[in-house]
């Protein structure tokens, strides 16, 4: 964050936004912030001024001359008397009010105890000054910033619980039939969870896949109309064909393979005119 004694802004000297598309909030504590310092708040930001843990003011878009408890002492006098540093410590916190994309991933188990991987992609934003205050009150800073990864870490258990409520009582092959129920369940849990932090949930997308690649292929084969045993035979035949085994066709139809006598269970002599 670019900061001088007179101007506080969340923009870099080249005009880029320090919050960007990954940071939810960023803060700076500097002894040079005194009454008269100029605070600039961009259209996609909120700004909160704190002093020794207490919130002094919440700002929306605009440019403001700060009025802090050191006001009886003019800022320039303070800087000169204390060697350029104010004895009061202030924190300026910028909150991103743009929609940000968050991704949470994890593992759940189906009714047969088969592992599935899930991916939840959702958009969040901070909508009001009160919500911005809730954010910095309930979500701690990891250093000087809060990013979308930290949001994903906090929301992960809530998403996992909502997904398991549906997945654990659903057979693996039937999960996609319950995807709308699953999405609504996750959306309800996640909305309530994020509201505590002043964060609004917008769009949500859920993707569920068998964790084992073999299971994904078998389910795909059943999806085209094969029975479970036919899907297993076809899968086996495909793997054998990849390795150049001539008995792959026999595996596909479940017939024995005899060298020099039959091919795919058919007597070559029966094919002669």
Q: Sheet bearing the most strands, described? A: 5 strands, antiparallel
Approximately what portion of the residues adopt beta-strand conformation? 25-35%
Class from helix and strand fractions = alpha+beta
Shape descriptor: elongated
What's the topology here?
Layout: E1 7-8, E2 23-30, E3 38-41, E4 45-51, E5 54-59, E6 62-65, H1 75-81, E7 90-96, E8 100-109, E9 115-125, H2 129-138, E10 145-147, H3 148-167, H4 179-195, E11 200-210, H5 213-223, H6 228-242, H7 248-253
Parallel strand pairs: 1-3
Antiparallel strand pairs: 2-7, 2-10, 3-6, 4-5, 4-7, 8-9, 9-11
Helix pairs in contact: 3-4, 5-6
Give a description of the structure.
With 273 residues, the protein is α+β, with helices and mostly antiparallel strands. It folds into 3 domains: 90 residues, no CATH class; 112 residues, Band 7 domain (Tetrahydropterin Synthase, Chain A), CATH 3.30.479.30; 57 residues, no CATH class. Helices cover 32% and strands 27% of the residues. It is built from 7 helices and 11 strands. The strands form 3 sheets. It has a 5-stranded antiparallel sheet with strand order 5-4-7-2-10. Helix 5 crosses helix 6. It starts with 6 loop residues before the first strand and ends in a 20-residue tail after the last helix. The N terminus is likely disordered.
Structure summary:
The protein has 273 residues and is α+β, with helices and mostly antiparallel strands.
């Amino acid at each position: 964050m670019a900061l001088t004694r007179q101007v506080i802004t969340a923009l870099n000297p080249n005009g880029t936004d320090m919050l960007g598309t990954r940071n939810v909030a960023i803060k700076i504590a500097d002894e040079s912030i005194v009454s008269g310092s100029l605070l600039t708040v961009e259209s996609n930001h909120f700004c909160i001024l704190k002093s020794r843990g207490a919130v002094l003011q919440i700002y929306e878009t605009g440019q403001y001359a700060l009025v802090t408890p050191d006001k009886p002492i003019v800022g320039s006098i303070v800087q000169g008397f204390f060697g350029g540093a104010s004895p009061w410590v202030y924190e300026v916190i910028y909150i991103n009010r743009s929609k940000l994309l968050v991704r949470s991933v994890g593992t759940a188990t189906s009714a047969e105890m088969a592992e599935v991987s899930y991916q939840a992609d959702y958009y969040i934003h901070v909508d009001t000054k009160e919500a911005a205050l809730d954010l910095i009150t309930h979500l701690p800073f990891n250093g000087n910033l809060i990013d979308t990864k930290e949001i994903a870490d906090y929301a992960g258990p809530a998403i996992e619980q909502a997904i398991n409520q549906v997945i654990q009582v659903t057979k693996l092959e039937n999960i996609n039939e319950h995807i709308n129920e699953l999405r609504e369940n996750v959306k309800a849990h996640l909305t309530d969870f994020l509201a505590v932090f002043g964060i609004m949930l917008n769009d949500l997308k859920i993707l569920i896949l068998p964790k084992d690649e073999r299971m994904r292929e078998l389910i795909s084969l059943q999806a085209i109309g094969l029975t479970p045993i036919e899907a297993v035979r076809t899968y086996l035949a495909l793997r054998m064909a990849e390795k150049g085994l001539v008995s792959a066709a026999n595996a596909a139809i479940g017939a024995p393979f005899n060298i020099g006598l039959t091919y795919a269970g058919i007597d070559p002599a029966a094919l002669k005119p």
